[in-house]
Design brief:
The chain is of the alpha+beta class. The chain has helices at residues 2-14, 20-23, 28-35, 42-61, 70-80, 87-90, and strands spanning 107-118, 121-126, 131-134, 149-154, 160-164, 170-174. Helices cover 34% and strands 22% of the residues.
Length: 176
């Protein structure tokens, strides 16, 4: 899990922001490649494409530019779900005030991989590798067990509501 989290975090830091059309903050190499389309002479256009794709390929091999798809970004967002700070917005996964929040993850569903009681209440380790700790005084009606389905919803003011096997939710925070 730790290596997966670091990989997602690294990808998040290197991924370009989606607001290119507004401020043209696209990487210079990408912009040069797209500029090749405007050339009317086919030989010049092909030479431009060859030169720019070679430069872009070299930059990706050196990890100066990272190319990612929506699925990889969604996976990284899911891996960051539940952290108190808006890490995803800080790392280019959105956060423009004029963007809609349709891509924002509002809830996840997974299952319990281990469970125990701690001084503050329940401590749940989930199949996705995250660990959640209870931070309120309510309790589940039935004790959580390994394999139980867990639904975590984003609450208000940075809280997260965790329901196990469809029981009423309790407040928990992600600690790992």
């Amino acid at each position: 899990m730790y290596k997966g989290f670091l990989a997602a975090l690294t990808a998040a830091l290197l991924v370009s922001q989606p607001s290119f059309a507004k401020d043209d903050s696209r990487p210079d190499l990408y912009r040069k490649l797209m500029d090749c389309r405007a050339m009317s002479n086919p030989d010049e256009r092909l030479a431009c494409y060859d030169e720019q794709t070679a430069a872009l390929d070299e930059a990706t091999q050196k990890r100066e530019i990272v190319i990612s798809d929506k699925k990889a970004i969604d996976t990284a967002r899911r891996g960051l779900f539940g952290f108190a700070a808006p890490i995803g917005k800080l790392m280019g996964f959105g956060g423009n005030d004029d963007e809609d929040d349709s891509d924002e993850i509002k809830e996840i569903e997974t299952s319990v991989s281990s469970v125990r009681r701690s001084g503050s209440g329940w401590l749940l380790k989930l199949e996705d590798g995250s660990t959640w700790e209870q931070n309120d005084t309510r309790d589940f009606v039935l004790s959580p067990k390994v394999g139980n389905t867990v639904r975590i919803k984003r609450g208000v003011l940075g809280t997260y509501l965790v329901s196990v096997q469809g029981q009423r939710s309790i407040k928990m925070r992600r600690i790992n």
